[in-house]
């Protein structure tokens, strides 16, 4: 799957620079084109999660990979920003169901007490791609924007062809379809609301980070953003290698809360950095926070659901992340364009205060901290 996440890392740079440099888009449009990817994911994830609990994970892995690759190859032919926005909207739906299927597969293969570690391992693969993708993207775009999109699209198509060999992992239960049907949508969302709200704030900060880092790096005199992306991804990667097993031992909320605090401190550092070198420890803090919070919050959501409805529960949880991603780009782009570019990181730093508050609530409720939500243990309210 690194063959998919590496191109995604390359596209962080490619889409923002293509819209700004080749199509002449302003900061609002750059933010919209980068984060519109997540708008279509909001309805797509929960619906896809429900269906994959019935028919399996494989149909939601290889087709989206092929679709993502082909549309990436088409993107540089766009002659207007609205074309990029439409392509990214379609890619968002495909990418969202793909990651939900991968997360469901990872938790299918892991025992309940090891799901934090399973999500951390999946996240490691994500950030191996993200660690080097932006640097490669900057290098390829400097030579020609077509080169970046051709390499990224070709790699994703190859990943899709390789995924044809993946086995099915959906739990083999005779009552799976009935069990999924008997878990109402309202109960499904209620079970993941608290970790979901915390993840909303994490996703909001993440979208701001990737949308504006290329311009931020140049505005503070660092030039290419590749080294900042690399610092962020390496810190995330190192922490995620240990955060999952740690959460399995001490409780997921005990790992998630310090992570959210670190994200807020790092984003504030980026917003207030008086000189260029301050950006490196600041973005390292953000990376450490992401590395700890995301696997832990995902594990809480996964534990809240029975095996037969885990895909739907994860889809509902990830929709909170997508909402944060979708709102962040255009909103913060508009604010920073009128109030000053440093607000691109000052505003998401303030939003993390909400995530910290929810993290404290999770920490005070051990049954939620370890994921023993209403779907995982005991009767489901309103369900016979």
- Number of DSSP helices? 16
Q: What is the CATH topology?
A: Growth Hormone, Chain: A
Please report the total strand number as a whole number: 0
CATH architecture label: Up-down Bundle
Q: In the CATH hierarchy, what is the superfamily?
A: MFS general substrate transporter like domains
Strand composition percent: under 5%
Helix proportion range? over 70%
Q: What's the domain count?
A: 1
Major beta-sheet overview: none
Rounded to the nearest angstrom, the distance between the terminal CA atoms is 40 Å
Shape: globular
Backbone CA Rg: 20 Å
- What structural category characterises the helix and strand content? mainly alpha
Low-confidence stretches: 174-180, 371-384
Q: What is the CATH class name?
A: Mainly Alpha
Averaging pLDDT over every residue, what do you get?
80
